[in-house]
Amino acid sequence: MTATADPAVPSDGDDYQGEEMTLFEHLAELRSRLIKATLGFGFFFVIGFIFNDIVTEILTDPYCQLPEEVRGGIGTDSSGECQLIFINVLGGFVVRLKGALIVAITFGAPIMFYQLWAFIVPGLKAKEKKYAAPFVILTQVLFLAGAAFSLFIIPRGLEFLLQFAGDDFVPVLDAEAYITFLIRTMLAFGISFEYPLVIAILVLMDIVSHDLLKKYRRHAFFSAFVAAAIITPSQDPFTMCVMALPLAGFYEICIVFAKVIERGRGRRDVAAA
User: Fold this and answer.
1) What are phi and psi for residue 254, nearest 5 degrees?
2) 200: nearest Cα among 256, 266, 264, 144
3) Rounded to 5 degrees, what are φ and ψ at 11?
4) What are the phi and psi torsion angles at 86 (to 5°)?
5) Alpha-carbon gap, residue 100 to 89, rounded angstroms
6) pLDDT for 178-202, tens place per residue?
7) What separation in angstroms does the CA of 197 have from each of 48, 106, 138, 218, 223?
């Protein structure tokens, strides 16, 4: 963290400059960041709660896209409109809360990521700070992309799962359990899409090299499918494959990224010599 400049500290573009903050100042800064992140999360939670009808329509759409025969005709009212049920007194209220929670997670998580980066960045060296802004943006974009992507594959996963028991069973989907399934799936995809940033940071820190990434490519692909099998809430093959394939693609992008970074380092070394 940077406070006031200290003239006694030698000026070096790659070194940290300024007085270090005390432990209590760090804790105060962390508390401030946590409060801001919580307020942002709370703001979108309230928005999601107020506009519950719109949120509910969006969230039930993956289920309502399924053919009526898959839904067993149960999730349909007399006018043909798709519906979900709840089976306890507080079910409707809990569904509304969980719908608001999805909005808060989707739009509040980027604020949390930003506050985390804002807390870390002042303590970085000048050379490291130039990477901070792109990583802040990419962290938010990738999480939102993962959460949005999950909504496109959920209908196929639901269709597989609801038909798995066979024709002797009719699915009656509880709204509360369904929303919980959506939250877990969106979180799983949102967090998994941050995977390339971890590798990119290791490359920039010179911990992982282009050759190392190429050497362990097959291991990485296998790990992507294992991770997808563990992370995916539904555990169905379709959803696992859909999650694993982007992770494998991200790994390939990271290999190219490592090659570009290493070439840049090589040119700088030649110029310095």
Assistant:
1) -65, -35
2) 256
3) -85, 115
4) -135, 150
5) 19
6) 888 888 888 888 888 888 888 888 8
7) 29, 19, 8, 19, 17
Contact 63, 159 (CB under 8 A): no
Residues in the chain: 273
CA atoms 175, 150, 228, 162: torsion sign: positive
Where along the chain do its domains lie? 20-193, 194-273
Give 76-126 pLDDT, tens digit per residue.
555 567 777 788 888 888 888 888 888 888 788 778 877 877 777 766 666
- Residue 194's φ and ψ, nearest 5 degrees, are -80, -5
Average pLDDT value over all residues in the chain: 77
Six-digit token string for 115: 């506050």
Name the burial class of residue 17, with classes exposed (0-12), middle (13-18) and buried (19+) by CB atoms within 10 angstroms of its CB.
Answer: middle
